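Subject: complex prediction, re-run

Hi both,

The earlier run crashed halfway through, so I resubmitted it with identical inputs.
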Amino acid sequence: MSSTSMSSTPMSRTDGAVPILAARGLSKAHGETRALRGASVELYAGEILAVTGASGSGKSTLLHCLAGMVRPDEGSVVYAGQRLDRLPEARLSELRRTEFGVVFQFGQLIPELTALDNTSLPLLLAGASRKAAHEQAGEWLERFGVRGQEGLRPGEMSGGQAQRVALARALVTGPKVVFADEPTGALDSLASEQVMTALAHTARETGTAVLLITHDAQVAAYADREVWLRDGAVSADAVALEATR
Amino acid sequence: MSTRHILLGLLAGGPSHGYDLKRRHDERFPQARPLAYGQVYTTLQRLVRDGLAEVDGTDSDGGPERTLYRSTAEGAKELAGWAAEITPPAPFVTNEIFAKVVCAILAAAGPTPTPGPASTPVRISTADPASSADPDPDPVPMPVPAADPVPAADPARYLIAQRAAHMARMRELTAVKTAPGADLATVLSADYALNHLDADLRWMTTTAARLTTLTAEVDPT
Ligand SMILES: Nc1ncnc2c1ncn2[C@@H]1O[C@H](COP(=O)(O)OP(=O)(O)O)[C@@H](O)[C@H]1O
Ligand SMILES: [Mg+2]
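This time it finished cleanly. Structure:
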């Protein structure tokens, strides 16, 4: 990679590219708590964007709004030209299923299902035959280095293996955007490295954009760019810093 | 850093000549400063003088004649002793980032300096901290007109810019480390550098948060 692409982390790109996903002025309250207060962020096709910030700064809430899982109180979320925040629920859930993949810190795999069945699930929901789904899921498990573990249930795998299965499941349908909320938060450093290397390489190979939430700088270093959240808004510090460049 | 022990370590793999040792050092320690050939040569002389290495003949390979060195039994013993010896856990923290922040806080808390005569140079570093992993530390003297106020040191602003430079370097090291086919020496040295930059970064984040709290206490607006 060239040194110029590495030298700064711009808030938004200046090369005229159109973001695949853009949030403007998002606000969201949970009861009395104002989790987001006018947050704006842009995600470009094929890029890995790290969102960092202290615990409670609104990172997960931002991800939920961007992924169409939560509707913001104020502001807009535009995905490929459509207002996600105004889309009817049925249309939104179809879009989530076909265009988005999601990975959380833990707990999203179904405990009763094997790695292969867990990974096949999104394909079966999309109407694929069991045989075709298993074949494709097997290829993705191989890509994430968990071939040979197809028959294991989540409880029989290490944390790092389970996260790689979760990644395979998030990517098996060929989504345009993957949302990852602290995907390595429960892993030791070597398992974290394996998960992040697999995610970064696969995302770059397939041109999938990734919104990566983390408070770990060594994980954020896999991203192309970083934004900070502070008190529910993209930090003014980051904006001030950009203005000096 | 003990160059003599590192050379003994490289010689443990078999006899080598000076240039080969330099090349292998630079390969094994890719994030370290390359070893100067002169330093290799003088260190080898001292190892021989102390009985830790000896001349193992010469090798010409068609080109000029080169002296081969090998480790002695005494050298192997010295190496094993050094490798097992506990290193003091960094008792003196002398880091430039730390020093800059402390001095900037001192300056910010002190009396406002009066602008000097036009010829007084104000030292402003022109190095863009984000553009290079090892920014040129030499500041460039810049004359300022007498009427201009002396620029105030701003530790918070410095920390933000330094953090961005650290993150940029960490992205580079991560790319190096995870490139397909990266060898073990590269991975280990990138890991070492990443963990140290990460430690700096955590300290900078905590310090930025402390400064915000301090400012809020002094100026509760
Ligand atoms: N479902 C919820 N109900 C009540 N408060 C919530 C809920 N989700 C988040 N919060 C609060 O909103 C703020 C932001 O939370 P979150 O988006 O999870 O931050 P982060 O992911 O950065 O830790 C926090 O103060 C949190 O306690
Ligand atoms: Mg969270």
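Residues 1-99+224-245 of chain A form a domain with the Rossmann fold fold (CATH 3.40.50.300).

- K.
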